[in-house]
Amino acid sequence: MNRSSRRVALAMRLLFTVVTAAMLTAATFGCSGESASPAPAARPDISGTWYRATGQPLRPSQGDVPLTSWAAERMKAERPAAGDNQDFRETTDPSLRYADPNGYPRISMHPMKFTLAQTEDYIYQLWEYNQNWRQIALNKPQAPDPPLTWYGNAVGKWEGDTLVVDSIGYRPTTWLDSRGLPHSEDLHIVERIRRVGDTLTFDFTFEDPKAFTKPWSAQLTFELVRDGTMTESIFTISDELRFRERFLQQPAAIPIRR
Known about the structure:
The protein is an alpha+beta fold. It is built from four helices and nine strands; from the N terminus they run H-E-H-H-E-E-E-E-E-E-E-E-H. 21% of the residues lie in helices and 24% in strands.
């Protein structure tokens, strides 16, 4: 082999060595996950069916609910059909008197199940109780003046392993819990939802200048239902009329389906 041929062969071996080293380096970084553009982290999984065995009202994390005079007077005038007062004829509970939806977060305090279903853009909360539902829009701005609804206008975002939900736009006729805890249309709720194993925790912060003298916090905890089943629970007009006939002694204005 002459001198020129030896130089060509040497150059080819050097090129092969460089290319092989580059391929090995790329493979090593790919296997170790240390690439320059890592794949986005998977979202935490809070999906599943959840259950809370007790139906207790909201308990502030510290002290009592800081009611304004307006809220204190309004709550004093309410007559829940619970505890020592089981006279449904006298109740002011809107869910019993008018068959209104429970509103939020009261609906989650029933000892019944709900399911969380996750998509890329929304998280849906589906309650077994009367088959109500709400949606949480992900990574969207809060509407400046949303229409008032039973379950509010909810937007959320992930902060690490916690879903932070911001909600406004609640109808002021609902109770926050079964005691008659009131609020106004200015109610603002921030939830921090986090799953640890088979436990799902909702940490609430409530703000409402008309109803509360300062923001206050409470917590609800739920356990995973392994088989994920929920039963059909729908209250029809006939159910409502039967209830009124039995407990309120109100004759039905239309035939009741028995």
